[in-house]
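note to self: dont lose this again. the chain is below, predicted strucutre after it. 171 aa total, dont forget to put it in the shared folder this time
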Amino acid sequence: IDIRFRFVVIIVRFSVSARKLRLADHVGDSFDFKNLYFTIAPRGVYDEAKRFQEAMTMAYHDFHGLETRIARIFNTYGPRMRKNDGRAIPAFFDQAKNGKNITIFGDGNQTRSFCYVDDLTDGLFRLLMSDYHLPLNLGNPEEITINQIANEILSLVGNKTSAITYHALLT
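---
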C-alpha cells in the first residue's frame, strides 16, 4: 500500500520539565553515570516517554519529510495558576499570602529554570513559524534554587512572620 501524506503536520512535544545535566560539573567526582538513564527509576517512565516522543517525531520528520517542531518547555509560571496543583510558585505565594510557613521538600538547594507564560507563548509562536525542526529548549537559561524563589516570594508578599520549613523529598 502506498500511503501519501497530503498535509503538513506540525508535531510539538510539550514537556513540563527540562532539567540540564552539566556533565562537566561532575568530571572527577563520584557522579554515578549508570543512573543517568535509569529506566526503571520512579521517574524512568516519564523520562523515557519524553525521549521516545522526540525520537518518533524525528523519525516522522526524516522518513516522511514531515514538517515538525519539538518544544522542550521549562517550568512555566504566570497569572491564574492553581494554588494546589503541586507547583512551587503558586504554592509558595498561597502560603506566604495566608501567613503560613513556606513548605520546601528537600534542602531547598534544588535548582529550577522558570519561564513566564507570555515569554513561552512568544517562543512557541516563533518556533511554529520557523523552519527549525530540532529540539528547542523554551525557557530561561538561568537556574535558581528553590530557597531563592521562596525567599523572593516572602519578600514580594511582604510577609515578615512566615518561615521556610523543610520536609523530606517525596518518593
